[in-house]
Amino acid sequence: MSRSYRISVRECVNRVIKAEDRISTQLEILEVLPADQMADLLARELEQDGYRREGNLLVKEEDGVVVSIDAKTGEVTVSSEASEGAKVEGERVGRAYDDIGPHAGQVRENLRQELQRDLEKKVAEKTQELQSKVTDRLEGKLGDLRQELDRVVNRVTAEALKRKAASLGQIKEMTEDPQSGSLTIVVEV
Amino acid sequence: MQIVSRFEAALLRLLQYFLRGEPIERANPLIEARLSPPKHLSEGALRLIRDALAKRCTYLLAQRGGWRDERFLRHDRPKGGRLWQRTAPADLGLRFSQASLNFLVWITSVRPGDKSPVWAPEPDSLTTGDLLLLFFAHEGLRETSETLGAAELRKRSPYNEHALCWLTYPEDFVRTPAEASPRLQPWMSGVGSCILEALQPDLTQRWVLIESSKERIEKPETMRLLGTAQDRILNAFLLACEQAKRRDLARFLLRAAHLLLGPNAHAGMWTGSLQMTGQRLADRAATYQAATTLLRHVDRLAGWAKWARSQGRFDDDYIAAQLYLADWEQYQGDLLQQRAQTIIRHLDPMKSAPSA
Question: Which of A87, A124, B166, B216 could make a disulfide contact with B182, Cβ separation 3.0–4.6 Å?
């Protein structure tokens, strides 16, 4: 009578998994003044809003989300990334007709390969989870950011209009309603 | 009655199929057959090939749009009438080189996907007539069974650079390697531009069809591939039109946009079936960008309108600019641009993000 042997394989995978996401858009700035002057105004307003200059870009980092704005082109890039260590382990059990012979070796090898595939799948799942977190974080930030940038653009447009009006003649009256965002300038030409 | 060999009969029937004189049912077995080519074609067969090319190509161009009474530029001035009234028939002659014959012999003796024997004509050596025949052949071959390998043929030269095929069927070039770019130069002047004029109704119809089909695309990857192919050809085509000062050749895009961007046009018409669950924001943005490729190019057409308005009466391009402006206004370009922008904004994850 033949008997079978229990073969067990254990594996552990340690990986650093990374996830990143980014999105770009264009600020819609009216060309009230020449482009370089509008870019200067935008850069100044952004600096007042907590952005710091990094070469041609203005950058701000908040809650793991990095916002970088090219004041010249008006291109806004919002990105987020994360990395973490992932440890997954598993065990596979099979049966062989011998305990240290060729069949056991073959079974062990097959089990190891199956286990490797399982562990890779688990790592991929963890990466996907991390990716979802990063994307959710970025998505959650977009609403606030849009409002923030709308306010900046409004301030830039208002400032540009004031300067334009001043270049046309003498400003007699100026009323600003921060609630509605309206600006009325009376100019004597 | 003309007597031809079996191979010649197959070649002639395939040619007739490409020129829409035979149904696909009669062409399919011949494309599958891989007949052995003879050393020479008989004089009679050559006469029949010449006759078919001369009559059917002309007929197809006239039938597909050449008959329409339209205005296009001739020597920087608009000229109205049917194609043969805008350009004297003597100047509309198509010249076919040995390359056309070689192609017909090759396609009769192989299946389109076969790599051997090699058919690789030098793209520069192809005449406008050769390119037109290849275009008609492309239309015929894309209807054949996928297993015959027409898709493989499109990845190889000269098809991967055939701008008229790209422009009419961008969805067939989604797998074309990045280093191959469509050659627009033959279609911007001479008979080539006349062919493009004649095919305007077909081009409009094709672009409307492609854009309408986007509503049913579910896989983001499929959308991205299609959008990239469209973007490649549109960028090259619009640039070539600008350089050749033939903005009138892009009229079909305005017409297509006019048909697509009606008062009730909405983003769902381009992205209605996309499965975006679990997609990164970057991928979502890229997919939406691909979905709205044509809409984004309306901006470029608007740029042309701006340029046209800036042309003074004494500028060289004034008359050409007025023709473009007439098209722009006829198809309500400003309104189209507005509607396109609304849809693009709606699909911009950043601009449509809900306020916290």
Answer: B166
Q: Is the pLDDT of residue B355 over 70?
A: no
User: Residue A7: which of A114, A117, A123 has the closest Cα?
Assistant: A114
Residues of A in contact with B351 (CB under 8 A): 25, 146
Instruction: Report the pLDDT value the prediction gives residue B147, as an integer from 0 to 100.
Output: 87
Question: Which of B281, B282, B353 minimises the CB distance to A146?
Answer: B353
B193 vs chain A: nearest CA distance in angstroms?
A: 36
The answer to whether the Cβ–Cβ distance between A78 and B350 falls below 8 Å is yes
Please give the helix or strand (H or E) that residue B83 lies within, else none: helix B83-86
Cβ contact B141:B30 at 8 Å: no
Q: What is the DSSP string of B165-186?
A: HHHH-GGGGTT--TT---B-GG
Quote the ipTM score. Answer: 0.75
Q: B355 contacts in A (CB within 8 Å)?
A: 143-144, 146-147
Task: Give per-residue pLDDT as tens, B270-302.
Answer: 999 999 988 999 999 999 999 999 999 999 999
Helix (H) or strand (E) holding A127: helix A102-168
With CA atoms as reference, report the closest residue to B267 among B348, B346, B333, B351: B346
Q: Which helix (H) or strand (E) holds B50?
A: helix B43-61
Report whether B347 contacts B274 (CB < 8 A): no
Q: Are B11 and B52 in contact (CB under 8 A)?
A: no
